[in-house]
Specification:
Length: 384
């Protein structure tokens, strides 16, 4: 440099100017996407060229990560919450460059949030086992009964879901069930749960026909009818005679202690439980009376005890000459005294049914009288 004025000039010492170019960052190695198991460490790195020094800013899900001014980012003990897209910005005094995004995928093995529970179901009803499981990615579901994997059949549906449906449950579907959830990160098996099917009663022993013979009117001729059934306990029994319930006869065995012809008829048992009912077949009881002469005085006196008094009218309503709902009085004959037996006025039993009961009580072989349809329902024998 030369400086001049009126007095003269002066020249500076020589100076050297060096020009060094500064180049903006350029990404040379992009961060790579990663897939790993939860709890593992994930490391992303970037390569760049340009004029140093560089500064780095890593970004996750659009949010700048603090304290990460380095070409390498490490996510320690990664969880499902750390999954997402990561990229980095590299800058110097000359400019800025952004990398491509790299995706972090975190896999987690299945875990039961809600395990299945025991189920109890009535026979032929529908029920289900429900479980709730969490995992990434979503698991494959399989159900097992007594160690055998379920396949689609008439008895099940939704076998590859966490909501197994048991259709029209039968005894063969009762047992132990587990559900297995599997993905690339692992598998988990539930604790065993039990399906209990409450079976409706099934008759295993039918009552049999009985034909007892009376040789002595005063003798005690017992008859026992038996029924057996399977099904969910408790089982409740009710015996019926000619279609009507026998009061107090609620055991598997029906014992008739002093049987006479009035007991002739059809007997059956109804077995019930919480799941339903089953009715046995009919058992026919028919009493035969040995016809022996009754000549001695004791037998003659006994005949008086077997006398039945019947009093009635052939009109139920004299004003209209109705033959329905006839007033009838029955006394002695071994029948229980002091009873009043009303019947449906619109559909009363035939009066001839009473005649059949009276004849059978007298040990006369008669199953039919006039328009009778059977014996007289509700008529009880005297106990003393």
């Amino acid at each position: 440099m030369v400086i001049t004025n009126t007095f003269g000039a002066v020249t500076s010492a020589p100076a050297v100017l060096n020009i060094t170019p500064v180049f903006a960052p350029v990404i040379t190695n992009q961060p790579v996407s990663l897939t790993l198991l939860a709890g593992s460490n994930a490391t992303f790195s970037v390569g760049s060229r340009g004029t140093a020094p560089f500064n780095y800013q890593w970004v996750w899900g659009g949010v700048a990560l603090p304290s990460n001014d380095a070409p390498t980012l490490t996510v320690t003990n990664a969880t499902l919450a750390d999954a997402g897209n990561y990229f980095v910005q590299v800058f110097n005094s000359a400019g800025l460059a952004s990398s491509a995004s790299a995706t972090l995928t975190v896999h987690a093995p299945p875990v039961f949030v809600v395990p299945p529970q025991d189920r109890t179901v009535l026979q032929v009803a529908t029920t289900n086992f429900t479980a709730e499981v969490t995992s990434v990615p979503a698991p494959v579901i399989a159900w097992f009964k007594n160690g055998v994997r379920l396949t689609y059949s008439a008895g099940y549906t939704a076998i590859n879901t966490t909501n197994l449906i048991v259709l029209a449950a039968q005894s063969g579907q009762a047992g132990s069930y587990v559900v297995v959830a599997t993905n690339v990160a692992g598998a988990v098996t539930s604790a065993p749960v039990t399906l209990t099917v409450l079976l409706t009663p099934a008759i295993t022993l039918q009552p049999r026909n009985v034909t007892p013979t009376r040789t002595d009117y005063a003798g005690n001729v017992p008859v026992t009818l038996n029924v057996a059934a399977t099904g969910a306990a408790p089982l409740h029994y009710q015996w019926h005679f000619n279609g009507g319930e026998l009061p107090g006869q609620t055991n598997a065995a029906l014992v008739l202690t002093n049987i006479v012809r009035l007991h002739n008829g059809l007997y059956q048992a109804v077995v019930r439980n919480v799941a339903g009912a089953a009715t046995s077949s009919n058992a026919l009881v028919r009493v035969w009376v040995s016809q022996q002469p009754m000549m001695d005085a004791e037998r003659i006196l006994r005949d008086f005890d077997r006398t039945t008094v019947f009093l009635g009218s052939n009109l139920g309503d004299g004003s209209c000459h109705s033959t329905r709902n006839l007033p009838v009085l029955l006394a002695a004959g071994g029948f229980k005294r002091g009873q009043h037996l009303p019947f449906d006025q619109q559909n009363p039993p035939p009066l001839c049914n009473l005649y059949v009961s009276m004849l059978q009580r007298l040990d006369i072989e008669a199953d039919k009288f006039g328009t009778s349809t059977g014996t007289f329902t509700g008529l009880e024998l005297s106990r003393g």
